[in-house]
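Lab notebook: predicted structure, single chain.

Context: the supervisor wants predicted structures on file for every construct in the current expression panel, including those that have not yet been purified. This is the next one on the list. No modifications to the sequence; it matches the entry in the shared construct table.
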Amino acid sequence: MKSLTWNDIYKIGQTDNARRWYPMPDIAEYFREIRQPSRDYPHSMARAAQTVKFAKWLVKNKPELAEKFDLMEEV
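Prediction complete. Output recorded below exactly as produced.
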C-alpha cells in the first residue's frame, strides 16, 4: 500500500508561520496521541500522516478522502 506524499499532506492540513503542520479537523482524531508540532519538531504530525498506517486508517475511516489520493485501489 502506498502512503501520502508531502504534496498530499499540504492538501489535508495547514502550516502556521513557523511551518508547523496541523491536520484539518476531519482527520485530527488520528493525531491525538502524536506529539504536537513545535519549532524544533514542526513536522511531527506530518511525518505520521505519511505512514502506511495512516493511509490504512484513511481507507477505513475516511474512504471519501482516501479515494481522492488513490488509496482505495490499494485495499
